[in-house]
Amino acid sequence: MTELYILRNQHGYFLGKQKDWLDGRDRGALYKTPHKDEAINLKVEVSAKDFEQRIHILPCQPDERGLPVLAVDDMPPPRARVKPVRADSAELAPESSPEPSESAQEAQD
Predict the structure, then answer these.
(1) How far, in whole angstroms, is CA 4 from its chain's centroid?
(2) Which DSSP letter does residue 102 get?
(3) Domain boundaries along the sequence of the chain
């Protein structure tokens, strides 16, 4: 069998087909290629866009369906699922109104 090459960053997440970082639980969504030169080219492309990424090429064997076989040690901890809150959401705390100044109270008297 041939080897597959996948890309992993310094946090242990894998590059997906949509060029986003995934935890590897869905192996079908991972970027994979049998050609090492394609993996190197994509590594350079992604690194050029985000220079803080430290990307490593990880060779792995495919299973019978052609998906990469990942060891449990290669998997990062799962990301916490956080419900996004929109900025215009009603859940935000209302702004507190400032207290009237003493000069404004004297003007009313």
Answers:
(1) 22
(2) H
(3) 4-74
Distance in angstroms (rounded) separating the CA atoms of residues 4 and 88: 45
pTM: 0.66
Q: What is the pLDDT along the chain (109 residues), one digit of tens a residue?
A: 589 999 999 988 999 999 999 888 889 999 999 999 999 999 999 999 988 889 999 999 999 999 998 877 677 766 665 555 555 545 545 555 555 555 555 555 5
Task: Compute the C-alpha angle 62/9/67, nearest 5°.
Answer: 15
Among all chains, which residue has been given the structure tokens 């050029």?
48
The pair of three-digit structure tokens given for residue 84, joined into one six-digit string: 């996004």
Residue 11's nearest CA partner among 22, 19, 1, 2 is 22
Residues in the chain: 109
